[in-house]
Amino acid sequence: MQFWQSLIFCEPDQLTTLAPIAERLGFTGVVLPDHVALPEAAESSYPYSEYELDPRAAFLDPWPAITAMAAVTTRLRFATYVYILPMRDPFSVAKSLATTSILSQGRVALGLGVGWLAEEMEVLGHSFAGRGARSDEMIEIMRRLWRDGSAEFHGRHFDFARVFAEPRPTHPIPLYVGGHTEAAIRRAARCEGWMGLDFAVDAIPAVVERIRKAREGAGTADAPFEIILSPRAEPSRELHGRLEDMGVTGVILPAWSLMPGDYRSVDAKRRQMEDFASRFI
Predict the structure, then answer these.
(1) Are 112 and 80 in contact (CB under 8 A)?
(2) From start to end of 22-113, where are the E strands?
């Protein structure tokens, strides 16, 4: 089982201290969240729980943050959880990912979603209604740029003659798709993995079966595939064994800001990580 430490809402100046600790303790990797411009007033509601997003919450740009952490580690992996793909353009995202992958020696994965906050996407100039189809085209364009260093594309959302984007990443960049809808599951089936958020344990077998059927339909059933999620349950060896039997490959620990207690200091975070690692890693 992989264990990923969430750095969501972690103090920015602590990242380069916590990343080496996570590596030393045997964590697989760390994950970072993503938002760009949070509107003061929004009617959109968070789809996965009753959580309300504070528009003043601090979200680092994940790629320079990951690059900084990669510079002080050698094995730790990094992923976004999740990056809101359709409110960007494919060229900038492909460039940022290629650069981060090169500088981290291939230790970065793109956890991506299509977003839930309509007001944020619209203020950035993109249609919320077309975000799924836009994301699908972006994935295809980015993969071509990473593979060939160039791309030509003629689609509904993007239409351009051949362009070049070097350097190409020297390692594959896995794409892990977040989301519970059928469209998200189908999208994940064409990628390298799926990410789930705050899942009741009893609900996991059903989504794993949906993923299995979608991968069969996409012709990708025999390719390597990751299922990484945060279960809604207290950690235990029994739980992790059950999750592995279900087909889950990775567990994301809860963010410190969502745990009872005061975890603002590095020492408090370190002690919690050490306690978890001593029991489960």
Answers:
(1) yes
(2) 29-32, 77-80, 83-84, 108-113
Dihedral, 178, 180, 181, 182 alpha carbons, nearest 10: 90
CA-closest candidate to residue 204, choices 249, 254, 253, 248: 248
Rounded-to-integer distance, Cα 5 and Cα 78, Å: 10
The three state secondary structure string of 219-245 is: CCCCCCCEEEEEECCCCCHHHHHHHHH
Q: Could you give the CA distance from residue 180 to residue 131 in angstroms, rounded to a whole number?
A: 15
Q: Are strands 150-154 and 193-199 parallel, antiparallel or unpaired?
A: unpaired
Give me 97's structure tokens: 């990912």
| Mean pLDDT confidence for 217-235 | 97
Strand-pair partners of 151 = 163
Determine the straight-line distance between the first and last CA of the chain, rounded to whole angstroms: 9
DSSP string, 168-221: PPSS---EEEE-SSHHHHHHHHTSSEEEEEEE-GGGHHHHHHHHHHHHHHHT-T
Residue 123 identity (one-letter amino acid): V
d(C-alpha 148, C-alpha 169), whole Å: 10
CA-based nearest residue to 227, from 212, 217, 213, 241: 212
d(CA 247, CA 2): 12
Q: What pLDDT sits at residue 50?
A: 67
Query: Would the pTM of this model clear 0.90, i.e. be above it?
Result: yes
Give the pLDDT of residue 169. Answer: 98
80 with 110: CB under 8 angstroms?
yes
